[in-house]
Amino acid sequence: MSSTDGGNVADESVAREAAEVAVELSEDDGRGDSRRVAGRLRAVADRAGAALTGVTATARRGAGGARRGADTAARRSAATARRGAGTAGRGVTAGLNWLTAQVVAMGPRLRIRDQAALRARFPGKSDDEIAQLLVERAARAAATVGGTTGAWAALPALPAFPAEVAAETLAVVGIEVKLIAELHEVYGMAAQGSATQRARAYLGSWATRRGVYQVDEGLLLIAGSPLARQLARRLAWRVRRSTFALAPLFTGAVAGAMINRRETRRLGHQIRDELRQRRTTFTATVVQ
After folding, report:
1. Cα–Cα distance for residue pair 82/73, rounded to 1 Å
2. Closest CA to 204 of 72, 75, 104
3. Please, which residues have CB within 8 angstroms of residue 33's CB and are 6 or more apart in sequence?
4. Which of 54, 103, 144, 210 is placed for a possible disulfide with 30 were both Cys, Cβ 3.0 to 4.6 Å?
């Protein structure tokens, strides 16, 4: 097996492990055994760390060059210093590109319950009640992730793009994408196509915070800017939020849980309200 193949296997294992954690927490009401949750998230972080080592090696070398360039900036041209800083910046970009690839790979691995399964899971509940339960469970699951990874702030120092941030980001994104997909199922507006096409559609919905649209030709469209660019922007924002959750002196555990719960609930309500309004509008149009 080539080194490239080995890297791909490692990458797939990160996405697979993160998807399993997201599904387990979402369907367990976010209240699973704390040690088991911590262990699963630690496994994601360890796999992510191994994969990121190669990705960020060039960035570390570039950062060292940037520092040396700053020390001799008075004697060397400003252009040289800018090139050094640019090399360091490319390392951060490489890490974000790697994370984006993991999110895309994770999408099809998330287990999504269809409308029938959700109604069987919550018998006697209306669609709106099921949607609210899904939102609250996802919010609790995200809070669990934030609290668990926030406790890792005991580390004396964190690298520029730590594996811990990658693990927290992947787990919460997985929880939120699963929530979005199941909200679409609840309201009878599930994305169509292959598993990969549906996963990409829901990733687009997560990135744009809008529902999935279907055109006559069967092409899945997402309202807003192009998917890749918007996904990268949303992930960059998500990474900053995850980094804040890893604040020093264990304050990150409380902050991470609180912020994740609030933001996941807000996203769920936003998608739910749009889908509910869209279904109401569609029904009214058909009745007329």
Report:
1. 10
2. 104
3. none
4. 144
